[in-house]
Design goal:
- The chain is mainly α.
- 51% of the residues lie in helices and 7% in strands.
- The chain contains nine helices and five strands, in the order αααβββββαααααα.
- Strands 1-2-5 form a three-stranded antiparallel sheet.
- A hairpin with a 2-residue loop joins strand 1 and strand 2.
- The longest helix is centred in the middle third of the chain and has 15 residues.
- The chain starts with 9 loop residues before the first helix and ends in a 9-residue tail after the last helix.
Length: 194
């Protein structure tokens, strides 16, 4: 049975990453900076966890002063060629340098199962407010930030997520038909005197 995956708030995102970076008092949860890095990338780039775990430094191409993804998404087979935020690229570059990885080496040695297991430990520690958190919550968090920062532009968000239709994105973000209908009703503009 699949359980519902929640979208993280920025506060929940920060709490989980802080626990992963520093552990908890009395050592109940040990720190894991690599998983913190993986989830930071996923939560800022909107990548599915499987695509994130396959990244190498060759997964990016320089274009002007930016770097862009040069990957094919595992689930959809679609190419992802959006810009990677400079701050995230620098985190990955520093990570690769610290681990002395070549440009062809996979950046991360974890499996999705390993990460889910660590998240389960954190969910249990943090309680009910985190009960529906999974690796996919981080992708949803990135999507919601894009949606809000674009002025609720669902088409832009759909494109960012590489979804096939707006209805998929709408469902993904938890935007109901009633919410869309309300925005439509409140968005009427008729020229005066018409």
């Amino acid at each position: 049975m699949n359980r519902k995956t929640s979208c993280l708030t920025d506060e929940q995102f920060d709490t989980i990453i802080e626990i992963l970076e520093n552990g908890t008092s009395l050592g109940i949860i040990k720190p894991n900076k690599e998983i913190a890095t993986i989830l930071t990338v996923t939560g800022n780039c909107g990548l599915r966890i499987g695509d994130c775990l396959k990244l190498t430094m060759n997964s990016f191409i320089k274009e002007g002063s930016d770097y862009k993804y040069n990957i094919k998404e595992e689930k959809t087979g679609k190419t992802r060629s959006f810009v990677i935020p400079k701050e995230i690229y620098e985190i990955l570059q520093n990570f690769a340098n610290t681990k002395q990885l070549s440009f062809n080496d996979r950046l991360f040695k974890y499996t999705e199962r390993n990460i889910q297991k660590k998240l389960k430990e954190i969910r249990e520690y943090l309680g009910d407010e985190y009960k529906d958190v999974s690796t996919h919550s981080f992708r949803k968090c990135a999507a919601m930030r894009i949606y809000k920062n674009s002025g609720n532009n669902i088409e832009l968000t759909r494109k960012y997520l590489n979804h096939s239709s707006i209805s998929v994105t709408q469902k993904y973000l938890g935007v109901s038909d009633d919410e869309v209908n309300e925005v439509i009703k409140n968005s009427v503009h008729i020229r005066k005197g018409a």
